[in-house]
Amino acid sequence: MSGRESPTASAPDRQLLAELAALAPQDLAMIGLSGGSFLMGSEDPLAYPDDGEGPVRELGIEGFAIGATTVTVAEFAAFVHATGHRTDAETHGDSLVFTGLVAEGLAETSPSVQATPWWRQVTGATWFHPGGPGPTGVAAVPGSTLEGSNLEEWARHPVTHVSHTDAEAYAQWVGARLPTEVEWEFASRGGLEQQPYPWGSVREPGGVARMNTFAGVFPSRPTAPVGTVPADAFAPNGFGLHNTTGNVWEWTSSHFSAHDQRPVLRGGSYMCHDSYCRRYRTSARSAATPDTSLGHTGFRLALSL
Ligand SMILES: [Ca+2]
After folding, report:
1. If you measure from the C-alpha of residue 211 to the centroid of ligand 1, how many angstroms do you get, rounded to a whole number?
2. Which residues contact 133 (CB under 8 A, 6 or more apart)?
3. How far is the CA of 184 from the centre of ligand 1 (A)?
4. What does each C-alpha distance from 106 to 122, 132, 177, 225, 293 come to in angstroms?
5. What is the CA radius of gyration of the chain?
6. 242 CA to middle of ligand 1, Å?
7. Mean pLDDT, rounded, for 201-217
8. What is the pTM of this model?
9. For 88-97, 194-203, 213-222, which range has the lowest pLDDT when averaged over its residues?
10. What is the Cα–Cα distance from 31 to 241, expressed in whole angstroms?
11. CA–centroid distance, residue 5 to ligand 1 (Å)
């Protein structure tokens, strides 16, 4: 992040913002869960022990409610439209975009990140301009040419390029909160015990994808479209949650470890691929600083009952 101010480059177009906000549903789709006890974490061969996925431990959990989907572009638009909230990406002036999703004409001026060269630092990339500002200024689904009349589809995608701070601001606005990591995993497991995926043990039953992850050779030779899909795409798990694994990483309210106070991210994203990052599993973990925004990270809400 450059930290430089960019007060006008990425401000949402007011008309489009109003149109997007109008597409937000009136009610939050929250699922009430009665809680109980469950086995958290994983020690199976797919797990990354260094991420703190284990040991497996039995935990008790109070009843709570959690979003059936991650917060969508339309829902976040309603928040920005009502409050004028300015995201960390807008304050920083840039955000990180997967190299294959950088808006046309911006690749040459968007430096790649040294250790992870598939990320590019794109000036003006925000939740409203996920690939960076396009030539028309119309927000588009990364990797596609959606604009104008396709606003309705984009509205249903997860909001991205939102920091933990932005996510908490949204949650406070609607009277909710972020889930704890324990709540997130309990909900993502959908009632199954110690399964790597929300639907069971096999990643692609019958060869059919059940979540949105990177297909092909990462990062440069995808065999399917790369980027977000609508938040309610794919069948829900046993509790009714969509896309806990894959699509976008999701912020939680928990800290990564006693020595690492960064907020935990869960679930993996459309960039996950078994060749380098099989974190598209119910127990997988990551973390980022609270002001970080990324093109593959969003959040879902929770409520205490
Ligand atoms: Ca997810």
Report:
1. 9
2. 9, 10, 103, 106, 124, 125
3. 10
4. 7, 7, 36, 20, 18
5. 18
6. 8
7. 95
8. 0.93
9. 213-222
10. 8
11. 30
**Cα(178) to centroid of ligand 1, in Å?**
14
Residue with tokens 């809400």: 301
Could you tell me if 138 and 154 are in contact, meaning their C-beta atoms sit under 8 angstroms apart?
no
* Separation of CA 248 and ligand 1 centre (Å): 4
DSSP string, the chain: ------TTTTPPPHHHHHHHHHTS-SS--EEEE--EEEEES--STTS-GGGT--S-EEEEE--EEEESSPPBHHHHHHHHHHH----HHHHHTEEEEEGGGSPTT-STTSPBPSSSTTEEEEET--SSSTTS--TT-----TTS---GGGHHHHTTSBP-S--HHHHHHHHHHHT-BPPPHHHHHHHHHTT-SS-SBTTBS-SSGGG---S----EETTTEESS--S---TT-S---TTS---SSSSSEEEEEEEEETTEEEEEEES--TT-BTTTB---STT-EEE--TT--BTTEE---EEE-
Q: Nearest 5 degrees, angle CA 8-CA 10-CA 12? A: 100
Q: Residue 237 Cα, ligand 1 centroid: separation in angstroms?
A: 12
CA of 183 to the centre of ligand 1 (A): 14
% of the chain exceeding 90 in pLDDT: 77
> What pLDDT is stored for residue 6 in this prediction?
43
Per-residue model confidence (pLDDT) at position 218: 93
